[in-house]
Amino acid sequence: MAGRHRSDELAKSPFGRGDALAKSPIGRGDALAKSPIGRGPEQAAPIERRRRSPWPSVRTYMGAAIILIWGLAPFYWMVITAFRDVDHTFDTTPWPTYVTLDNFRDALATDKGNDFLGAIVNSLIIGAATTAVAMMLGIFTAYALARIEFRGKYVVTGIILAASMFPGVALVTPLFQLFGDIGWIGHYQALIVPNISFVLPLTIYTLTSFLGDLPWELEEAARVDGASRGQAFRKVILPLAAPALFTTAILAFIATWNEYMLANMLSTRATEPVTVAIARFEGPDSFSQPYTAVMAAGTLVTVPLVIMVLIFQRRIVSGLTAGGVKS
Amino acid sequence: MADSAGPRQADEARAAAGVLTDSGRDVSASGREVPDSGYPGHDDIAPPPRKRDLRAVWLIAPTMVILAIVILYPVLRAIWLSFQADKGLDPVTGTFTKGGFAGFDHYLMWLTQNCGSGMGSCPPGTLGADFWPSVGITFFFAAVTVTIEVLLGLWMATIMGRTFFGRSLLRAAVLIPWAIPTAVTAKLWFFIFAENGIANKILGTDIAWTTDPWASRFAVIVADVWKTTPFMALLILAGLQMIPQDVYEAAKVDGASAWQRFTQITLPLVKPALMVAVLFRTLDVLRMYDLPAILNGDSGATPTTTMSILVVADIRNGNFNSASALSTLVFLMIFAVAFIMVKFLGANAVRTQDEQRKGDK
């Protein structure tokens, strides 16, 4: 067991293929492979970093603090402002002052042409529908890409990657005209269909990489035990793949939830998602920006996402990095 | 990897030979030890022949059909539209034009500012005259933001890769900028950069961040870097974690300094992952719309008008045909950039993904 594991580790490690290393003046690849530290099976686990002086550790914590402030400070400012009285919008106290819930009432009020609650419902409908369609189509394609060797696989992967990097703006004009002609503008399908164009490649891309990591020997075992290919997939692989499917669904949903440009062009007031609603949020008059109400609206849209991200942090990170690199 | 198909084949060969369960993996059907050193020795057990192509086609076909409908059809239609003349009253002659084939007129309008009476005839303030500035500003944003993101991302990734108390909290925190919708991010920075906003208060300045040309460009860059550097850092971190620690230990034994270890080990080994991240981010910035549109307006006349904003502004004016020509130009430019990056900088996302999938098996 341990022996086989080690051989896997070695095959994976860059000096298995690493000419980069062989070229480098300090790390001669062959010397490394022969050196005793590269060998023992206990090396599979990364070596604990030894601390000689406290300085590296202090530097690490300072760096960590800077990154933490980077990530949280603007978000924190949004939440603080959301709870701050509108007359003290530009108060610079870094902790909650003049706390009030009025901004949330303003954000959800419908008397000024805003309908934020409706927009949240729209976003949920559009997000759920897009995610469902993308997952249904994506899982079959990802299965084929991860599991079946076939000619043209490289081409299919290329098409899907190209589609995921496709500029959405190239779709806007024809879709705007087309949906106008067939009377789709003001209906949800006008927003769901274009979203599929970027969510589906993302879904396939992430799923393929997740599925490639599954222990497919178990499927073969089930096949030998007499299960059909469909049964083996449904009863053995699907339960194992459930976390991967869930993560991919979260990523697809977030991608749809955050889309703005296409939604801005292809929605009406009745179907607009939260991003559009928040971008055109109207204040009491056209001269003053309704900062606090917008921050409250932003908080409402963001806090559920942030909670989701905090709960599924590990899985989301692995999903995000699944395509380009492997963690 | 030369034998990149090896692991999978070997697994299948084992499966065919009945070597299936995890605990029994090391022992083949005949009971002899399977050599550790790997898979090539097993190529003599051929995987059973299967009708594979057809199954793959059926699994992939629905996706391809949908992608053809939602991407290929609009693109072809945009190309067709871009060669059509506008219907309606001709503003110059006052006669009714019926449309029809317009040749490259729309393309020339954008590329040479030909608004009807020769090259450079688009008056300032029209969208035609904004074309080259918007191309310039888009590529400027791409170059600046991606450079900053790579440098900051590398730094963040090295910090996040260390073991210390609260590491997972840190990784969760950097996901927050990524998770916030760009529209909300834009509104948030719009507030931070407001006239009396916190940015001016902290800096003790009085800068009009959303109207002054260079200040507003700076604001867009700050907001974009804030939002996407964590994503970059996570991609780089994933690449860093593939580098085994013993390489560093060996380099230390050989007397390499920290800087040498970084430039001679970290950079070359993290390069494939880094290049893919750079490719993704560059193409992402080149199609940027949300941030500048919400921060500084989407009229097409702002100092931060990107190519995407110009397309949308043209559609708003009802010029579907010229907007199609413009979006086709944008598409071609982004395609060219992607091609150059893949061809000359080795940012091959397809191959990297494919190799890593196989290599990791």
Question: Which terms summarize this structure?
Answer:
heterodimer, A: mainly alpha, 68% helix, B: 361 residues, mainly alpha, 64% helix, 2% strand, disordered N terminus
How is this structure best described in words?
The complex is a heterodimer of chains A (327) and B (361). Chain A has 327 residues and is mainly α. Chain A contains 16 helices and no strands. Chain A starts with a helix and ends in a 6-residue tail after the last helix. Chain B is an all-alpha fold. Chain B is built from 14 helices and two strands, in the order ααββαααααααααααα. In chain B, a hairpin with a 6-residue loop joins β1 and β2 (96-98). Chain B starts with 5 loop residues before the first helix and ends with a helix. The model of chain B is unreliable at 1-44 and 357-361 (pLDDT under 50). The chains are: A mainly alpha (327), B mainly alpha (361). The interface between A and B is large, with 137 and 146 residues.
